[in-house]
Amino acid sequence: MAEDKAAQSAPKGLGVKRGRRIETVSMRGTSAAPPRLKTGIKEFDRATGGGLVPGSALLVGGDPGVGKSTILMQVAAAVSAETECLYISGEEAIDQLRLRAARLGVQDAAVELASATSVRDIAATLDGPKGPGLVIIDSIQTMYVDSVESAPGTVSQVRTSAHELIRLAKRIGFCVILVGHVTKEGTIAGPRVLEHMVDTVLYFEGERGHPFRILRAVKNRFGATDEIGVFEMGEKGLSEVANPSALFLADRDANVSGAAVFAGVEGTRPVLVEIQSLIAQSSLATPRRAVVGWDGARLAMLIAVLDARAGVQLGGADVYLNVAGGLRIAEPAADLAVMASLLSSLSGHALPADTVVFGEVGLSGEVRPVAHADQRLKEAAKLGFEHAIAPIRKKGGKVDGIRITNISHVSELVGRFGSANDLKVVGGGAHAAQDDEWQAQFG
Q: Global pTM?
């Protein structure tokens, strides 16, 4: 009897086969900045960090009908002047793509069209010395790999198809844009790993009742995150909005209570938007809280802070909050503007038309400073606002053209609307919104 020691290997692991030694380099050194492929659409280039990078992969998601295929058709037409573009659709026929191009007025652009769903056929078409510089796949949920035994749209098919297309793009050097469907919660359908595989993730947001569309970057390996591009949907497709603040405030009625103008920052761009609120007596055992465009949990926190730190009781009232224009706000700097809107609705006094508000509110009622305060104030002054309610800034100089009122606690803001005992929920109609004497004392 002789002992025979078997080689150790994990089940379905690497086994005993040896791999090649990988090459390593030092971190010290310089690398050239990646070249950019400008689309000519400034809002799209802003969201992508300055243009498309060859060899990169982008994922564009959004609700059905929001305009994903429209904006990508316009991008392909714009880029076709510099490089060859290929638009591959797995959902539409060639005639349908041509009809859309004619509606957008880009039917004469040098864009190649294809209707295909097999990744193997697409790879065979793209694998060559002279391939396109931009490839658009609409959508990744319709693609399939014949070696995977599952239907198109499943997790394994979406992951495998995206992996093959991204690997091919990085090997050859073309830019690939993948269109992804979204779930009811608004996230991209399929595996979450799909967002980790690509270089840039863009979400196309917008309400069906509003013409505005927001292209938001939530991940970008070649640029800043949380950058936005603003578009307006029209008969000829999507047009750029150079000054979104003026657009969001275009239909604003300055003499209505419950409205406050918030000076926000989206990425590197300051944006002014109106926050509206309505407080009414509740006939329900559990008062209603309806929020559009903001975080409902944060609204509940501000209501609790008003009650505990300033004596303003809103626990038994219905509270409705809306961000006008269809924009979604995520930054905590909107806390003070939301609180000013609630107090305006509760007191019946309209905020002065030339006033903007921003600042973060803590649980103890303190008002904390926020980033990019000077940019917010300069944007407000540029649009004609003369007064700002903001937290005390530790750094930053004086901004010309605007008067700043610094507050450190929410009780100071409440005191401008009256005593806490006077701020009660009043029903039976709208409040008197115009009060010149009160507005003169407010500032």
A: 0.78
